[in-house]
Fold this sequence. Notes:
The protein is mainly α. 55% of the residues lie in helices and 7% in strands.
Amino acid sequence: MANVLDVANLIISKTGTIDVWKLQKLVYYCQAWSLVWDNQPMFSERIEAWSGGPACVELYQKYKGQHEVKDYDFTSGKIFTSDEIETVDAIIRDYGDKKNYELRMLTQMEDPWLEARGDVPFMHHCENEITHESMKLYYGNLYRKENEFD
Length: 150
């Protein structure tokens, strides 16, 4: 299984220079939709419900203090499956044109982030995990509604 940095590197290799917080949200959507489409997580690291939206601590630590990322590093040797690559491509296609603040607002209106935050006040620190189950349930329902009449 890939780690979150592998997925981030794949995204950066396809998008070029990218805002660090936008990268956090794209990685989150890759994880969520992989759970729906492929019935498995794309990476093992947990995603937390931070005040700025879903975030992965390992990705934050990697790019802490940076506004944008333009370089990627495939030294891990991770080879992605065709399903994983299709998921990343779909996320970039469907969410890649949005600004980081648009993605933040979008994720903050969706149940997985809202449920994980619970009653934590908006600008307060929160390490609550956005679970795989909540992502799969929420995005799975969206997927079924989208494809109901196909």
